[in-house]
Task: structure prediction
Amino acid sequence: MVCQRPGDRRPDEMRPVRFEPHFTRSAFGSVLACCGETQVLCTAIVLDEVPPFLEGTGRGWLTAEYRMLPGATPGRHKREWQKLSGRTQEIQRLIGRSLRASLDLSALGPRTIYIDADVLQADAGTRTTSITGGYIALALAVRRLLEAGKLENSPLLKPVAAVSVGAIADNLLLDLDYREDSTADVDFNVVMNGDLQLIEVQGTAENGSFSRPQLERMLDLAQAGITMLLAAQAAALTAA
Amino acid sequence: MVCQRPGDRRPDEMRPVRFEPHFTRSAFGSVLACCGETQVLCTAIVLDEVPPFLEGTGRGWLTAEYRMLPGATPGRHKREWQKLSGRTQEIQRLIGRSLRASLDLSALGPRTIYIDADVLQADAGTRTTSITGGYIALALAVRRLLEAGKLENSPLLKPVAAVSVGAIADNLLLDLDYREDSTADVDFNVVMNGDLQLIEVQGTAENGSFSRPQLERMLDLAQAGITMLLAAQAAALTAA
Amino acid sequence: MVCQRPGDRRPDEMRPVRFEPHFTRSAFGSVLACCGETQVLCTAIVLDEVPPFLEGTGRGWLTAEYRMLPGATPGRHKREWQKLSGRTQEIQRLIGRSLRASLDLSALGPRTIYIDADVLQADAGTRTTSITGGYIALALAVRRLLEAGKLENSPLLKPVAAVSVGAIADNLLLDLDYREDSTADVDFNVVMNGDLQLIEVQGTAENGSFSRPQLERMLDLAQAGITMLLAAQAAALTAA
Amino acid sequence: MVCQRPGDRRPDEMRPVRFEPHFTRSAFGSVLACCGETQVLCTAIVLDEVPPFLEGTGRGWLTAEYRMLPGATPGRHKREWQKLSGRTQEIQRLIGRSLRASLDLSALGPRTIYIDADVLQADAGTRTTSITGGYIALALAVRRLLEAGKLENSPLLKPVAAVSVGAIADNLLLDLDYREDSTADVDFNVVMNGDLQLIEVQGTAENGSFSRPQLERMLDLAQAGITMLLAAQAAALTAA
Amino acid sequence: MVCQRPGDRRPDEMRPVRFEPHFTRSAFGSVLACCGETQVLCTAIVLDEVPPFLEGTGRGWLTAEYRMLPGATPGRHKREWQKLSGRTQEIQRLIGRSLRASLDLSALGPRTIYIDADVLQADAGTRTTSITGGYIALALAVRRLLEAGKLENSPLLKPVAAVSVGAIADNLLLDLDYREDSTADVDFNVVMNGDLQLIEVQGTAENGSFSRPQLERMLDLAQAGITMLLAAQAAALTAA
Amino acid sequence: MVCQRPGDRRPDEMRPVRFEPHFTRSAFGSVLACCGETQVLCTAIVLDEVPPFLEGTGRGWLTAEYRMLPGATPGRHKREWQKLSGRTQEIQRLIGRSLRASLDLSALGPRTIYIDADVLQADAGTRTTSITGGYIALALAVRRLLEAGKLENSPLLKPVAAVSVGAIADNLLLDLDYREDSTADVDFNVVMNGDLQLIEVQGTAENGSFSRPQLERMLDLAQAGITMLLAAQAAALTAA
Result:
């Protein structure tokens, strides 16, 4: 079986990516990150406080919250507020872990950076777009701290970006959209840093199982996509 | 005491208003409504369901949710969950009541229109901007129902718009920004329809009390502001 | 259309009002406030604590809670306890704001006065009866603090009282009972102080809209009702 | 050690008991039940519904809710919400079980009687006063169902009443007030029916332990108190 | 009517009792307590903290939590986690009170002992098995504190054990299993200490009422069962 | 750096594994699964119900709950209630997904299998032990359905087992214990089926990043461990 993607997209082709830095001005850093039809507003806010387990250590922290706005899907996505779904919690923990990997928390000092990723429109890939966009908001917030003289040296280590890969029958596809994602047999999310080293790998057989060689090829695809995203991130930050 | 407004704004002058219809495409109707630095994403989604008290009546319903995103204020506005604050509940009930006043719920049929007003950036006037923008999202959603043949006649009665007025000492000011709002002695929110009839009046003395003549003059200011907003709404809907 | 009120009550006539001060003895101040069939137990308790935002300022606070007991309505009003309804929150915020307007919070010192308004029987007007009765409980609590030597001067500024007005078709009616309230087109709640200055105005068109002249006449009715309530409050406090 | 009770009350003497039937009119049955300074408003409301485990059986149910109003104690009793304390749940389960023992649930038919016991003032004995007063509210509600022709025969079996007994050192005391209760070594609550048969016995050593002979004497005291309460109940119901 | 018990058990005969001390090693004390088919894992953990009302007094505390695992009953017992049922709260309060009666809380010092009773399999008598097993876990934890030199003298006063008794028609039966328990007319739980003095008595007529002589005979049965359980406890602790 | 493991365990050596099938009898299937000091009680219960999204499809479902008992860790693990931690939710979603991969849900018919994994003692590897043990409980429950004639053919496809691998500096270690796990730089959890095909791969750099070759070697280690666990599972099921 060969898989025809919308708009004749090739299996190893990303959707169009667009970043609008400074989309809002009240947060320390913000970006509207768009990947195809997926739109995520990422903001970074820095507060002079640390979680209890870091008090007195001089180290800082980064934490993330992820939500989907009700209007993000045609059928109205109900707000989660009595409790968070497992999916939401998994995603925001992943965003936080991934972005912490880009930071020297000692160099940050006793501050917490809050990354908020609010999905305005969802067409799959919201968690990976949140990571890639979240890094831009983070870098803009760090820039502001440096400009304000609150930090002397940047605590940023290396950029971080993420992408999804999926298998539909025998087809391995980069950067699934919603229609593809909902029929995928295997779902892979990969986070890498600016050296293309791995930060996180999550692969799940939604249907059946997968082999070691398939895993290898999916990682190859992810690496190609992340290479492109890192370049787009850098361009957006230079222009901002 | 005479009050100098930022940017030499006159006491009876609105901040610049901007509406971006179709900001997202997944909702039935959407608009990014901006009033000065205040940015609210309003979406309207229509579902074929009604609340229990309307079942079997053939009538429809409109309900609203209002939230402020964490990045909307410099100090990070914590998401409300587990329970909503009284302020949030008051605001979303006000938005819902005001927009229902623009609808013939029998002509809507057994549907519910969900208006979601998510504040991306907050510089006061978020509830009134949500009402004014919410009407645009609502009108776009109705247009889509008409175009899809799901409705034969529009259930829209008259447009609805809202504005705030405040008193700082003896100065009565239209459309307060955050800095003005936080020092106001009296806080007034007024909702009117396209005939400039009153839908809702809420006036609170935050400090001291106010007289009947002051109330009169604040209503005059509100009427002038709403006249301008109704024109901007109409222009945005024509262009969309 | 002319509206016939139960018991031949005139449009501008209040229901019989009755206050039983010291209904319970454990609270600092208490009153059973009855307006027609509506019965509200208002208590005031003073604790030597202030909310976090007032710590170290020397100023005090007043806060209110409002609840309807299950037996207050024939169909059993379910207790709110997992979360408060928007209506309940609006009401208790209104009671708190209104009664704070009667207090010099600096003169109160670092104390919090808790006003609890528990509706034993509900026949409309429960929020306004809570405000009017709440002032009596508050004044009795202040008297007790003065008698105990905990305060040298009374922090009370002016009494506060509240009443509802409604429009049913063209009829404007003072102090609606439940049957009237449930058919009203416009619902107005007005809070005034002892000088008949406005503290709060809340007017909502439940059905249609209302004009500026109607608003004027409803405020006139409210002022007449509040004048009578202020006299009854004063009499109850003198006798207590 | 000999224990001097306030007002020279004898060890086997109840506090003054007072019942005000029909305290509110909206519930099917209501009574303000006072035992010394303890005041409990008991209401009974009947709804045509049964809990799921009784659906289709033709049998009815009785359930109880118990709450203490904030003004019931000098230090302000915080409202329980989000979760009920274990103490509150134990008490309302006890009230429900005890009053169900007075009812033939088959003769009641597919209805639920809701007993609400709201403590307006607390001076110990609130759970036993709730049971004794709850029976009066229940009997008044049944009378109203009979008068309205909704029941042909009364489902009431026998009246039910309750009292507390305590041990302070070697003194066994009937009907403790708050000051006595807070120093008691053993706390006993006894529920009996009109034949003085036992419905419920709950005895707890708060401090140390107690012997079988002590238990016997506490049951004797309880029986004397309940005999008196049953007479007062009957008188109140005759007069109502 | 004569009641035939499973396995020809006599009315005054306990089910087989088995204690496996040190079932887990991470807790300070642990035991798998089995009574017939009922299996409860009891653990005791000691932390250097006290509840707020004991701060600064030098006294310690003991508190208990009780839960039934989902697999404990054939129909799957849903975990309680949004709120605890009244039954669960009653049981864990009873376990806590009963075990505190075995401790000199001053001699314990500023520590809290947490008793966790997790029911792995439920065949009635879970609360009494939790108390009897809980005492073993408690005694093992105290032994460990003594061995570690954290306590010089044991704060244990007397052992505590508990058993249930029930009435089915005229038959009084010791230590009911689930099938018996679900048809019992009267349900009695009795807690005694090593001197066979009473700590707690809870008797409930689930159906009808009971007389004073019946109460006496049920207490006799309970005393016989508890005598046996105290011996089994002592043997397990000697062997551990 | 070379890493010395407790008890001279080799880097590619599992801890001792022990399965006690039928540990409780009330559940359809149960096993006490022990891996080193980690002890997990896994039960499987089958109910004739399906979640709403499967109603009318004839297909069944499997879902899992995971909890750690308070006594499982020396410092007392507080029960999660009101809301589950993100970690707990991730784990129980992983257990559910992994075990569903071993089932033909159509062949199961309209039933839900509930897997409950309650950790009695935690020494790392609780999620993987829950999966490996959960499969045994599942297989025993299926056996019981077959024996009872409720299923004609087994819906089991292939067994499923899981293991953790970690990197500490340059050392790659199979099946970490708690002390190792808390210092690991990379944490890997791998789930495979009886054909050693991949079901789930989750790898996280807790500190730094990891390379593709490291990922390969960790998967090799995991495969060796899972091979051994599949054999132990089969032996336990044969003996049960």
Summary: The radius of gyration of chain B is 18 Å. The mean pLDDT of chain B is 95. Chain B has five helices and nine strands. Chain B touches chain A at residues 23-27, 30, 37, 39, 41, 43, 45, 47, 65, 67, 69-76, 79-82, 84, 114, 116, 118, 120-123 (CB under 8 Å).
